[in-house]
Design a protein that fits this description.
α5 packs parallel to α9 (207-220) and α10 runs antiparallel to α11. It contains 14 helices and two strands. The protein has helices at 34-43, 56-64, 68-85, 122-128, 130-158, 160-174, 178-186, 194-205, 207-220, 224-231, 236-248, 250-272, 284-290, 300-327, and strands at residues 24-27, 30-33. It is elongated, with a radius of gyration of 29 Å. It has a two-stranded antiparallel ribbon. It folds into two domains: 1-54, no CATH class; 68-331, MetI-like fold (Orthogonal Bundle), CATH 1.10.3720.10.
Length: 332
């Protein structure tokens, strides 16, 4: 009989199961948390390279790239921005050059949209009209997000008396119709431009953003990571800017994207009524207003600026819907 005893084979006990704290198991020689692995496998939100769960924004981008509505709207908006920034790349015609001998004429060589009542090229005016309309929409959205986001964040974070005062102020402005209030506001400015229109729309259009931000901040400020930051002695400013706002801004982005199209329509409506951009500014609202006189005899004068306006608003609404679906896990 040999003095050397034969070693018994080592048996690795199973780590997964109800008796094992943390619910771990060995996968490819590594201990992996079963809950995380199952969540990643079921939801499909893990990074294929590392297997780690994605963040909210990377997961939203991963979802957006697979949505046809996002791809179509992004392509349309990219094209509209190119036209607004560089209209000279698409036409060599001066939109303000008019010749009455071409009044209300249809499409011609080099003028695919025909002429308006003053003999101006409709194609050139449609292209150049994109710049002020989109500029008003973007600047108004930015201003509304800054004003409404700040008021809503302060109301939701501090609560109590601050919330009551800011909420009542928000309700007062919310009760004023956007276009009607802008008409009254702009009537006080005889010399109007893009900035006065933006100011009028921001003063009256920030209320919805404030309400959305307030609700999002209230839902986030009691989260465990916020309580932990407060227990560690973080200041209110740091908690609000570093912990709460990054986790509460998603619904605001969705509402702002959809509202951008609403602000473009509001600018066109004001220009249509003669209270928006000055008459010498080429804009879709102004051209739609001028087309009333030629609607029966030359409907193309109305068709193209109105079609461009509708396409722009539809693009931003589609983008907002896609972003909302990507950021809201309940809709997946």
């Amino acid at each position: 009989m040999s003095d050397r005893s034969t070693p018994l084979p080592r048996v690795q006990p199973p780590l997964a199961g109800p008796d094992v704290p943390g619910g771990e198991q060995i996968v490819a020689g590594e201990v992996v948390d079963v809950a995380v692995a199952d969540a990643v496998a079921v939801a499909g939100t893990g990074d294929p390279g590392t297997g780690k769960p994605r963040s909210l924004w990377s997961d939203a981008w991963h979802d957006l790239r697979r949505r046809p509505i996002f791809l179509v709207s992004a392509a349309l908006i990219t094209g509209l921005l190119l036209v607004a920034l560089f209209p000279g790349l698409f036409t060599n015609t001066d939109p303000k050059f008019c010749d009455l001998k071409y009044s209300d004429m249809g499409a011609a060589d080099g003028h695919p949209f025909g002429y308006n009542r003053q003999g101006c090229d409709v194609y050139a005016r449609t292209l150049y009209g994109a710049r002020p309309s989109i500029m008003v929409g973007l600047l108004t959205t930015l201003g509304a997000v800054l004003v409404g986001g700040l008021i809503g964040a302060l109301a939701g974070f501090y609560g109590g008396f601050v919330d009551s005062v800011l909420s009542r102020v928000t309700d007062i402005f919310f009760a004023i119709p956007l276009v009607l209030g802008a008409i009254v506001f702009l009537s006080a400015f005889p010399n109007r431009n893009v900035w006065t229109v933006v100011l009028a729309l921001v003063v009256l259009g920030w209320t919805q953003i404030a309400r959305i931000m307030r609700g999002a901040v209230i839902s986030v400020k009691e989260a465990d990571f916020v309580v932990a930051a407060r227990a560690l002695g973080a200041s209110d400013r740091r908690i609000l800017t570093r912990h709460i706002l990054p986790n509460a801004v998603a619904p605001v982005i969705v509402v702002a994207t959809i509202s951008l199209g609403i602000y473009i329509v509001a600018e066109a409506t004001l220009s249509f009524l003669g209270l928006g951009l000055p008459p010498d500014t080429v804009s879709w609202g102004g051209d739609i207003s001028d087309a009333q006189l030629s609607l029966r005899t030359a409907p193309h004068v109305l068709l193209f600026p109105a079609g461009a306006l509708s396409l722009t608003v539809l693009s931003f609404i589609m983008l907002g819907d896609a972003v909302r679906d990507a950021l809201d896990p309940r809709l997946r």
